[in-house]
């Protein structure tokens, strides 16, 4: 299992629109092969900051999503609200 962690900053004043956009395009991500779970959180101190946590079977499953038509739908629904590029990293559990 691999955890994708994405730090997403959105343009001030667009927080509600971003959240609504996320709700609309979440199925494009959630129904992807190799996805185990997905969760989006919003900052308390910094309301323009969101953290996306996605558990994938593998980094390759995440890349397959990024190479798919589903990613274009996903990005079209939320990308216009970004204030800068998202920071995305992958993590694995310690045993």
TrEMBL record:
Pfam families: ABM (PF03992)
Presence of the UniProt keyword Oxidoreductase in the record: yes
Superkingdom of origin organism: Bacteria
InterPro entries: ABM_dom, Dimeric_a/b-barrel
EC number annotated for this UniProt entry: 1.14.-.-
Domain ABM: 2-91
GO molecular function annotations of the record: monooxygenase activity
Enzyme class, spelled out: oxidoreductase
Keywords: Monooxygenase, Oxidoreductase
Protein name: Antibiotic biosynthesis monooxygenase
Species classification: Bacteria, Bacillati, Actinomycetota, Actinomycetes, Jatrophihabitantales
């Amino acid at each position: 299992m691999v955890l994708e962690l994405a730090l997403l900053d959105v343009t001030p004043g667009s927080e509600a629109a971003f959240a609504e956009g996320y709700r609309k395009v979440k199925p494009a991500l959630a129904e992807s092969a190799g996805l185990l779970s997905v969760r989006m959180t919003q900052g308390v101190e910094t309301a323009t900051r969101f953290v996306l946590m996605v558990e994938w079977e593998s980094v390759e499953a995440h890349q397959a999503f990024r190479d798919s038509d589903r990613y274009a739908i996903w990005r079209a629904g939320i990308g216009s609200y970004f204030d800068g590029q998202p920071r995305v990293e992958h993590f694995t559990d310690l045993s």
